[in-house]
Amino acid sequence: MLCLLALQCFMLHAKSSIQIDTPKRNQTLEGWGVSICWWGNMAGHWTDEHLDSLVEWLVSPEGLNYNVFRYNIGGGDDPQWRNCTPHHMARPRKGKGYRAEMPGFKLYPDSEYDWTADSAQIKVLLKIREARPDAIFEAFSNSAPWWMTVSGCCAGHEDPNKDNLAPEYYEAFCQYLIDVCLHFRDAYGIEFRTLEPFNEPYTNYWYRSGSQEGCHFDPESQVDLLHVLYPMLQASGLNNTTISASDETATKASLRDLQVYGDAIGMLSQWNVHTYGATNGEREAIRNIVKEKGLRLWMSESGDGGRGIEGNLKMLQRLFDDMRYLQPVAWVDWQYADEHTDQWALVGTWWKPQQSWRLKNYYVRQQVTRFIRQGYVFLDVDDDQTLCAISPDEKEVVLVRLNNEHNTTTFTYDLSSLGKIVSKIQTYTTSATQSLEPSDLICHDNALEITLQPQSVITCILTIE
């Protein structure tokens, strides 16, 4: 009996080969990306020489290979600070810094548009467009201008659970967004493919004199605004710009919006969701509903805190879960560059002296985004710590495996469904002591054994004969 129990215990803990299901194809990757605020609000003041290097690391196929970018249409606070604490977003420990003070294009109801107001973020946007002609741009709003809000502050309502856009300003706000999009088309030749009027709307994060721009919208209010925005956009002449929504911070809130939207779903081309809070079951539910509705699906913002490479790999696991269960066609970071963090940013900076350097987080993210390129199709793998995709010509398979444990682990992959694999496999590894370090592995009889050191990630480039 003891021998039988020991055998059963061994069988429970034995790790069989990980299967890659080639016939089952999932989403085709449209791109990897990042929002341009708030880092663009700082980097846009740099010299061309320093900014060009920062952009090159971001968009180059040998860098992060990002091609999706979200431009923030700022609302802007009252220049006289009559309804909120002066520079409340920049307050030490309470605010997000001067980087979060995004300028609006219209200071007062009777003002003319000041198209120079957001010159820093625009400079970065134009640099990206120059370096990456295939870039996809989305415009999004965190808040309407202060004078359209109930509180008179673009950080939110006095009560964070209440809508802050005054109903009588719905049409003016929609016109503001459309006017900005028209200006970018006419002045810069940039047509935003999508316009997102909300950002994490059904939360209690946004309050007067808060740390950043934000505006609460109940789901029903979101629907009301879309009924105003949609016909105005249709009549605007922006024939290539459609609406995306709802950019909720968590999958639970996103599912609630999908249940409430009703016919407003037909006004959208794209569904955006953030995964700061998410379960795999909710990810799958969103995927199924959005697919049924015929919308494009983006994971439009995420990020996380932590410490060192352990925190970086934790964020990479979220990316894996998003791509496996949510299955968006684009995955978008929140911040690219910043000071005083090795978690929320991929590039470290000192803004004033215009210094920048690639963080470990950069190389961790690059293990996926540099090698799983636009147009690659994700494959089913029976392992949550593995991501796998095949090239459009089906001559290359990229396999990424992470080990976020504190011990060395060995895994064997059954590659028989891929066809004949070239035995010599190029690999790249990032760990606490390595940054995209190249090496080779040998594949024997379509079986690949990988040994991963603690807290590391490896990318394997498989060539199919």
Provide a short characterization of the protein structure.
This protein has helices at 2-13, 39-43, 48-59, 119-131, 170-188, 219-234, 251-261, 280-293, 308-326, 360-369; strands at 18-28, 31-35, 68-72, 136-140, 194-196, 242-250, 268-277, 296-301, 330-333, 337-338, 347-350, 355-358, 377-381, 386-390, 396-403, 409-414, 424-430, 437-442, 447-452, 456-463.
Description:
This protein has 465 residues and is α/β, with parallel strands linked by helices. It has two domains: 16-23 and 380-463, Sandwich (Immunoglobulin-like); 29-375, Alpha-Beta Barrel (TIM Barrel). Helices cover 28% and strands 26% of the residues. The strands form three sheets. It has a nine-stranded mixed β-sheet with strand order 18-17-20-15-14-13-1-16-19. An eight-stranded parallel barrel has the order 2-3-4-5-6-7-8-9, surrounded by four helices. Helix 5 (170-188) packs across helix 6. The radius of gyration is 23 Å and the shape is globular. Residues 1-14 have low confidence and may be disordered.
